[in-house]
Amino acid sequence: MKHAELCAIAHNFADALSCGNGFVIGYYPADIYGEARRAFEGYLIVDFLAGMISGGPPSANLAAAILAYRDAFPRFCQKHGASVDDFREITVRYSAGVLKNQFTVTVEDTRGRRSSVEYDGLSGKRIKDLDRHNEVRPKIG
Questions:
Q1: Rounded to two decimals, what is the model's pTM?
Q2: pLDDT tier at 82 (50, 70, 90 boundaries)?
Q3: Which of 2, 3, 17, 91 makes a 20 to 30 Å CA pair with 110?
Q4: Residues spanned by the domain of 8
Q5: How far is CA 50 from the centre of its chain?
């Protein structure tokens, strides 16, 4: 499967946790940004393949939710024409800011291609930035 398609799958999965309702795993409310705000550095990193959280101690509710997300990921991939085996890494950094929340999705495929993309935490849309010609473009890096 193409790397861009894997990135789209990872974004959609990460956005499901970002919205707070947990519809991918049924209905399981979890406030990832509230917990990230309480973390020392203001962010939490979720490894969806391992079902692990780093950056601060998660609540029991969030830890259970992340394990449920890990277990749901193979079905989610299959539904979108992929396999969990297509991914070597899928980590998401959820950052709680003063003015806005955002998440950065990092994907590595089995061929070793790796990319990271930042998204707005509320809308789930890619963050925009000004390029060297002062034109609005999707932020790179």
A1: 0.89
A2: very high
A3: 17
A4: 3-138
A5: 13
What's the pLDDT tens digit per position in 97-131? 888 899 999 999 999 999 999 998 776 776 666 67
Position 85: which residue type? D
3-state secondary structure 9-24: HHHHHHHHHHCCCCHH
Answer yes or no: are the C-beta atoms of 109 and 88 closer than 8 Å.
yes
- Which DSSP string corresponds to 95-141? EE-SS-EEEEEEEEETT--EEEEEEETTT-PBPEEE-TTS-EEE---
Q: How many domains does the chain have?
A: 1
Report in angstroms the alpha-carbon separations of 107 from 29, 82, 111, 122, 126. 25, 14, 11, 21, 15
What pairs with residue 123 in β-bridges? none
Using the predicted structure, report yes or no on whether residue 88 has a pLDDT greater than 70: yes
